[in-house]
Amino acid sequence: MIKSLQTKMILVMFVFILLVILFSAFFSILKMEQVYYRGFVEEMLNTISGFGIRVNNIDNPNRPDDKKSIKQDNANIEKLIEDFNIYFSINNNLRDGSIYDENFNLLFSSREDGIDAEIFSQIKSFAEDSSDYQLINDSRTNKYYFIYFVRDIETKDIINTIIIEQDKTYINNQLKEISIFYIASVIVISIMTIVISAMLASNVTKPIEFIRKKAQLIAAGDDIDEIVLDDSQKSEYEVNRLVDSFNLMIREIKSNLSELSNEKNKLEAILLHLSDGVLAFNTSGELIHANPAAKKMLHIEDEVLFEDIFKKIQIDINMEKIMYLDDWTTTEQMVKLNDRFVNIFFATFRNEQDNLGGLVAVVHDTTKQVKLDEMRKEFVSNVSHELKTPLTSIKGYTETLLDDIEDEEIDADARNDENAKKDLETKKHFLDVILSESNRMKRLVENLLQLSRFDYKKIKWNKVEFDLPELTKQICEKHMIQAEEKNQVLDCYVMTDVPMVFADRDGIEQVITNILTNSIKYTPEGGNIKVYVGYVHDDAYIKVIDNGIGIPEKDVPRVFERFYRVDKARSREMGGTGLGLPIAKEVIEGNGGSIDMKSEVGKGTEVIIKVPVKSDKNEEPKEEESLK
Hints:
Layout: H1 5-50, H2 67-75, H3 77-90, E1 95-100, E2 106-109, H4 117-126, E3 133-138, E4 143-151, E5 158-167, H5 169-220, H6 237-273, E6 277-282, E7 287-290, H7 292-298, H8 306-312, H9 319-324, E8 332-337, E9 340-350, E10 356-365, H10 367-415, H11 418-455, E11 463-466, H12 468-478, H13 480-484, E12 489-494, E13 501-504, H14 505-522, E14 528-536, E15 539-546, H15 568-574, H16 580-590, E16 594-600, E17 604-612
Parallel strand pairs: 12-14
Antiparallel strand pairs: 1-2, 1-5, 3-4, 4-5, 6-7, 6-10, 8-9, 9-10, 11-13, 14-15, 15-17, 16-17
Helix pairs in contact: 1-5, 10-11, 11-16, 12-14, 14-16
């Protein structure tokens, strides 16, 4: 395959000019032969017409057109032969003529050996046609044979046959000379074409070759200076424009390289001093970058593959799942390395063509946060346990005092002592407040203790089979009076046949109760609360929808955080602690389900709880300590 532009240009120009010459030669020779052929026919017709014979329906003006003249011509055939003899005595070197009667008997011939038998047989076959003349071009004898039939005007019978033989040697010699001329022209013009094409191609390709070498140097990073052509390299306008464009590209490359260098230096400085570790892998799982922090935290030495690095720290994670499976949601791993805790976050990155380029792992040391969290949990657990005993005492003493006040009120009524009655009412009011607050504190402490059990994995679920729709309807009936007090409409709908679920019944009841009471609490008077129970994709679900005050969009993702309250003032007024939803989430997830919330301010809230149904994969029910 020809790759050189210069060779291609020379070859194209040479082939083009060669084809033009060859076509010109072919058509010139063909045209010349046709001209000679037509000239010969016209000459023969004019010659025969000069002999006083009717040719092609053209009468001789010197001879009247009647039957007598025909007979007279036939009677004077000797005169015709004499004229023929004179004519061919002048042209006997290239041309011969013969005259035959109506029976093709020879009357006159300028040659002694006669006409070739095969040609003569072909001539006699033409006599059956009604044409006046025929022409045979015979390559075997290298001759033209012009045959003219002298016919009777009325009967069209042949009276005489005139045959004129023309040797083609002369025209062949002429055509040969022309062919030699064209061959010589082809050789001369081809040489000139090659020379001129080479000069022209060199003029065009020389600066292009220079630019190519310059591009190689730029690609290698050896030379990024602009191109300057000397006089020997300068070319036409288009090449100069190409050089200008190339120099513009070089200036842009310089500018971009400078920016990339600055960004690279900044990125390297950031990664070098970053306290978090950063690992980058290509699509083959090969390590392409690791900053010092990552090497230190993960103890990376000679490992260069994703699998080897994370197998070393005992993390069972599949790189292909992270990169290619859309439904794989685990992108974060918490790992304990010796006495430290690290959180590893995985994310894919893409190249300029928006194709998957690889994977990045960010390693964050969470040891301090984990220890603080453990301290917080331990503190909450200890405080909760310490508060539980005095709260029980306060509540017990308060209830005892309230019982005594009831007896004193009976005595005061008997004595009809109004002052004593007022003092007892004041004491009872204070004791009711103390009892109410101690009950609220008790609920808070119980919630904290329950979260502590979740944190320390001390919860044992009493999973059993039960009818979720029936449980939900019972919970709705219990809270029907509470909803009616606010003129709310509470409806419960079972959408389809729901299989038996397998979970901790008390825990699920606590969650549904918590969600339903929240809806009643935060839905204004006259509102609507709808509870739906159904079954989809191997999960039973409870959907609670209200048209209450709703939750701002920015707060929805945080409602399951501990102690988080959307409106703190409102929560205190309504007795909220910010622990109900976190407990609900722990309970549902501990039973293999999920809980999700959607809300919009002023339009209401929708909570969806999913609980797994009974299947062969579930554990067999065990009598263990329940949630309560």
